[in-house]
Amino acid sequence: MKKIPTGIKSFSKLKEENYYFVDKTLMIKDFLERGSEVTLVTRPRRFGKTINMSMMSEFFDITKDSKEIFKGTKIMDTPYVSEINQYPTIFISFADAKRDKVAVVSTIKMQILKQWKKYKYIFKGLDEFDLPIYQSLLKILTQTEDGSLVGINDAIAFLMDKLQDYYHKEVMVFIDEYDTPFIEAHTKGFYEEVRGGLSGLLHNSLKTSNSLKYAFITGIQRVAKENIFSDLNNLVVCDVTDQRYAAYFGFDSDETKELLEYYGLELNNKVKEMYDGYHIGNRDIYNPWSLLNYVDTKELTSYWVNTSANSMIKTALKQANYTFKN
Q1: How many whole angstroms separate alpha carbon 204 and alpha carbon 156?
Q2: What is residue 58's DSSP assignment?
Q3: Which helix (H) or strand (E) holds 173?
Q4: What tens digit of pLDDT does each residue of 205-241 get?
Q5: Per-position DSSP letters for 110-169, written without gaps between them
Q6: pLDDT-derived band of residue 277, with 50, 70 and 90 as boundaries?
Q7: Does residue 105 sit in helix, strand or coil?
Q8: Which of 83, 147, 209, 262 makes a 20 to 30 Å CA pair with 191?
């Protein structure tokens, strides 16, 4: 019996440690075929955004050998198997950028530093032009307790440029829960203090960088205040009403039926009444968090965490006649 993957965020852990696996790897095929330079997918919390981002990063990351992890998955039966582990890849998550200003800023800087550390070998032998930039940015990134994002604008873009110089390939960028620090800053009253740094960070890496191959971003919403993406004309937004990528976040009826039957349960009317009702891109989708908790506890009850962020999404959807349950 496979373990229940409640809360698992790492694709490699999901595959290597005998967790139940729902194959969403054709999302990689769609991503490559669409060829959109920057894609933003918005979904409520607990809809599998992080595990999908981990999957994408694992597939493309040039520093890894992921063939065994993806063995037997749907993507390996497509021509795009040739793209596995072929790109310098940056994977950053802002999911934990919460609480007060210092904590939010510290999380942002630590996530970027983690990528700098991963690729530290590319900074060896910098010339007299790049070395001062490296030293300045490193000093800013390591000041994690100052609560300031001043000077951080090029922290991702500089890494991208050096990766392209080293590998002679453009860079894949994946940013998970990009909007969490914006939401936290807005609700806690320090939005203006971090907005410039965050917007500059996204703009310089996703808009003006010549080292970008493709970027994929997830969040619960498109931040509208002062429109941080106003000049990002290479951005494709796929919200909950959009058919693009609709199949890859959450479980459809067949996936739900198969999951429940594996654990000795049934997709009956009671389960449908409790967990059905998510209509995303013309598809009926079940929330994976609710289903996995139901499988674990065998108790038919509400599990979906009703955060304030989810409430904002639910309010917007109700106005468009979309219904959320559990």
Answers
A1: 8
A2: H
A3: strand 171-176
A4: 999 999 999 999 999 876 654 456 666 677 899 988 8
A5: HHHHHHHHHTGGGGTT--TTHHHHHHHHHHHHH-TTS---TT-TTHHHHHHHHHHHHHSS
A6: low
A7: helix
A8: 209
Size (the chain), residues:
326
Report helix, strand and coil shares of the chain as percent, to nearest 5: 45, 10, 40
For residue 323, pLDDT over 50 is answered with no
Q: For the chain, what are the domain ranges?
A: 11-238, 250-319
Third-level CATH fold of 11-238: Rossmann fold (3.40.50)
Lowest mean pLDDT among 44-48, 111-115, 147-151, 189-193: 44-48
pLDDT digits (tens, 9 = 90+) for 279-308: 887 888 898 999 999 999 999 988 765 444
- Encoded tokens for 277: 């009702």
Q: What is the pTM of this model?
A: 0.90
**Cα angle value 162/163/166 (rounded, 5°):** 85
Is residue 244's pLDDT more than 60? yes
d(CA 270, CA 197): 48
Torsion sign, CA atoms 11, 2, 25, 64: positive
- Average pLDDT on 231-254 reads 88
CA 103 vs. chain centroid, Å, equals 20
- Distance, in Å, from the CA atom of 69 to the CA atom of 59, rounded to the nearest integer, reads 9
End-to-end CA gap in the chain: 26
Query: Can you spell out the DSSP letters for 175-225?
Result: EESTTHHHHHHHHHT-HHHHHHHHHHHHHHHHTS-TTEEEEEEEESS--TT
